[in-house]
Amino acid sequence: MAKIYFYYSAMNAGKSTTLLQSAHNYEERGMRVLVFTPKLDNRDGVGMVSSRIGLTRQATVFSNEDDLYDQVQSAQSSDKIHCILIDEAQFLTPLQVLQISRVTDRLDIPVLCYGIRTDFQGEPFEGSKYLLAWADELIEIKTICRSGKKATMNARLDSEGNRVWAGDQIDIGTHYVALSRKEFCLDRVSPISDVGTEE
Question: Checking DSSP bridges between strand 111-115 and strand 4-8, what pairing results, if any?
């Protein structure tokens, strides 16, 4: 029985590398995969999944308006699809997470999603929130903070390497660093206020 898998981590933990390796493993066995990546992630060109170690692959682009169930069902009509892989899955809309659940439940195709849970202020991305709630399997890809502790948060830096504390949730680029929650200073950056509480 097919499942939804959510592989999550802080930035720069190797999510795209893991996705590309998974796609290779399926194809090496003669199986067909469909790889999705968000249109807004154009760091290495629209429709490219790229890893920091130099692996790249062309992928099917999706935007917020796309119906992923319809796209998969259409692609499946020409030849069997054995697995769906989604890069930067935090950018899925809640409706698209529902659509991929239909892919798994109705078309019996496993869906492997790779993404981060939270933004530079510790706020959950919509896609990640629903993947955490609805996925059958949650798998953490671990990386470490400069402190040596496990990194779980994503701090944004400006062009000079200074910490950015406010701004839009989405800012595509490589100017992020993975930190432990303590190093991240969640109480300083979070829009949730604890003014008036005791330490």
Answer: parallel
Q: What secondary structure does DSSP assign to 39-69, as a single string?
A: TT--TTSTTEEE-TTS-EEE-EEE-TT--HH
Place of tokens 């999550």: 8
Q: What is the pLDDT of residue 196?
A: 47
User: Each residue of 96-133: pLDDT tens digit?
Assistant: 999 999 999 999 999 999 999 999 999 999 999 999 99
Domain interval for residue 76: 4-142
Q: What is the mean pLDDT of residues 153-181?
A: 87
From 27, 28, 65, 88, active-site residue: 88
Which structure tokens are listed for 145? Answer: 């903070």
- The alpha carbons of the chain give a radius of gyration, in whole angstroms, of 18
Per DSSP (E only), the strands in 4-162 are 4-8, 33-38, 48-50, 56-58, 60-62, 83-86, 111-115, 137-140, 153-157
Residue among 184, 183, 164 nearest 173 (CA): 164
Q: What pTM did the predictor assign? A: 0.89
88 given a catalytic annotation: yes
Residue 97 lies in a domain: yes
Q: Which CATH number is 32's domain given?
A: 3.40.50.300
